[in-house]
Amino acid sequence: MPDIGLIELILIGVIGFLVLGPERLPEFLGQIARVIRQGRAWVNSLKNQLEYEKHTLTQPIEDVKDEVQASVQDVSDAVQIEKKDK
């Protein structure tokens, strides 16, 4: 995000006031605020959808990984028992 200071905001406000006039400036600012809100909502929706898809794709891999680790642990335990028996 660009770093906009107070001076820049005042300058933008003055230019907007001169170009749009006092009647249309509040309506224009409201439209800008609405567009920004809709954009943020869209980005959040996209983030949520991507997170859901990532979870959907990685969950089976995580399940297989857990099963393999459990199997390796079982084999390791069996080898330790065999070593103790000998």
Structure description:
It is built from one helix and no strands. It is an all-alpha fold and 86 residues long. The longest helix is centred in the middle third of the chain and has 80 residues, at 6-85. The protein is rod-shaped, with a radius of gyration of 30 Å. It starts with 5 loop residues before the first helix and ends with a helix. The model has no long low-confidence stretch (mean pLDDT 89).
Overall helicity: over 70%
Distance between the termini: 68 Å
- Largest sheet descriptor: none
Number of helices: 1
- Cα gyration radius (Å): 30 Å
- Any low-confidence stretches, pLDDT <50, length ≥5? none
Q: What would the principal axes of the Cα set say about the shape? A: rod-shaped
Order of helices and strands: H
Highlighted features:
86 residues; mainly alpha; 93% helix; 1 helix
Helices and strands, with pairings:
Layout: H1 6-85
Task: Give me a quick take on this structure.
This protein is mostly helical and 86 residues long. It has one helix spanning 6-85.
